[in-house]
Amino acid sequence: MSRLFDLTGKVAVALGGNSTLGSSIAEGLAEHGAKLAIVGRNRETSEEVAQKINANGGEAKAFQADVSDLATVENVATEIEAWTGGWDILLNAPGMNSTTPFLDLATEEWDKIMDVNLRGVVFATQIFAKKMMEQKRGGSIINISSVSSTTPLSKVFTYSASKAAMNSVTQFLAREFAPHDIRVNAIIPGFFPAEQNRKILSEERVQSIMNHTPMNRFGEPEELQGAAVYLASDKASGFVTGTFLRVDGGFGSMTI
């Protein structure tokens, strides 16, 4: 059974691999044999993730790029190719959030969040997918969505809109890339104690979340690893594309 999830010989590029959730997923991919390129806006935190993976017997290297500045993504793709010769797995985990109420939202803030969560991810995927097609060995693209993509959450209007758009992008690209044997799926995490949502978790909001989460707790970042390894593995999910895998403690199944 373990061979189904063996990623030995695979190269994974983790955009946002220095984030709370992105780093945990990257570590999970590395533990199953993948070679990791950890890409983040902050070089120092990317180095920390890479060092942790290497200390645990994996192989990883840190790179710096900002998906809202596509010239840096082009550059980092060239750097990663020089290091590994190509890649098989692309993890799209960068993200930006804001609690600005809708009527107070300025175009500048909307653009900044969309530049990271949507525009940046879309065009970074374009850059990395072209190489995957040239390699002619298939691959897996994993987008990190959100429970707010299907049921918009209060206080995170722009974030919710960006993640809903990414769900559509995920399914469109699944159809676009299927002839190249490149699968595109998304993980829909529930509430995890990540930097993105920590600042809006008042006691009242925590209680509201728990009332809508049947498992009555937050998720742990490590609990996303299995979903990502499954979607990354050709043997385990070779016929899975255009789908959304919920890891949300039952949030998506709850009404009242």
Question: Can you offer a commentary on this structure?
Answer:
The chain starts with 10 loop residues before the first strand and ends in a 9-residue tail after the last strand. The protein has nine helices and seven strands. It has 256 residues and is of the alpha/beta class. Helix 1 packs parallel to helix 2 (43-55) and helix 1 (20-31) packs across helix 8. It has a single domain (2-253), classed as 3-Layer(aba) Sandwich (Rossmann fold), CATH 3.40.50.720.
- Whole-number average pLDDT? 94
The rounded Rg comes to 17 Å
Low-confidence stretches: none
Assign a percent range to the helix content: 40-55%
**What is the topology, as strand order, of the major beta sheet?**
3-2-1-4-5-6-7
Topology pattern, helix = H, strand = E: EHEHEHEHEHEHHHHE
Strand content: 15-25%
For this structure, what is the CATH homologous superfamily? NAD(P)-binding Rossmann-like Domain
What is the terminal-to-terminal distance?
Answer: 39 Å
The rough form would be described as globular
Query: What do we call the CATH topology?
Result: Rossmann fold
| Secondary structure tally: strands | 7
Count of folded domains: 1
Family: Belongs to the short-chain dehydrogenases/reductases (SDR) family.
Keywords: Oxidoreductase
GO molecular function, one term: oxidoreductase activity, acting on the CH-OH group of donors, NAD or NADP as acceptor
Organism: Gracilibacillus dipsosauri
Feature tags:
single chain, 256 residues, alpha/beta, Rossmann fold, 7-stranded parallel beta sheet, 9 helices, 7 strands
